[in-house]
Amino acid sequence: MLIKDKDYDIILLDIQMPGIDGYQVLDEARQLEEGRSKKAFIIALTAHSLPEDVEKSKAAGFDEHISKPIRKKEFLINIKEVIERMIKG
Fold first, then answer.
1. 78 conformational bin, left if phi > 0, alpha if psi -120 to 50, beta if neither
2. 60: closest CA among 34, 5, 23?
3. Domain boundaries of the chain, sorted by first residue
4. Which CA distances in Å does 85 have to 2, 26, 48, 61, 80?
5. Under 8 Å CB-to-CB from 86, ≥6 apart: which residues?
6. 45 has which bridge partners?
């Protein structure tokens, strides 16, 4: 896992991947970050867009939830909001 060797500001993480799901990767990433002063802002990317899907991803520890298909304008607005939240701390 790349996060093991390097700090990242933002990670876009697909929920459905072959062999492992995004929730498992999120858990591993958060464990690797333990003790670090800097934590990545991890965003769930998924085709699941129902309110309960958003709640599930946030409850699991994702910082944001973006539904597919991704539309450029909406995506850029979401990323801008994420960066603003990161700056505020």
1. alpha
2. 23
3. 2-88
4. 24, 20, 24, 16, 9
5. 9, 10, 41
6. 14, 66
SS3 sequence of the chain: CHHHCCCCCEEEEECECCCCEHHHHHHHHHHHHCCCCCCCEEEEEECCCCHHHHHHHHHHCCCEEEECCCCHHHHHHHHHHHHHHHHHC
Mean pLDDT computed over every residue of the chain: 90
Residue-wise pLDDT tens digits, 78-89: 899 989 988 887
Report the DSSP beta bridge partners of residue 43.
Answer: 12, 64
CATH number for the domain whose boundaries are 2-88: 3.40.50.2300
pTM of the model: 0.86
Q: What is the C-alpha to C-alpha distance for residues 76 and 55, in angstroms, rounded to an integer?
A: 22
| 27 token code pair | 């858990």
Retrieve residue 4's tokens: 């093991």
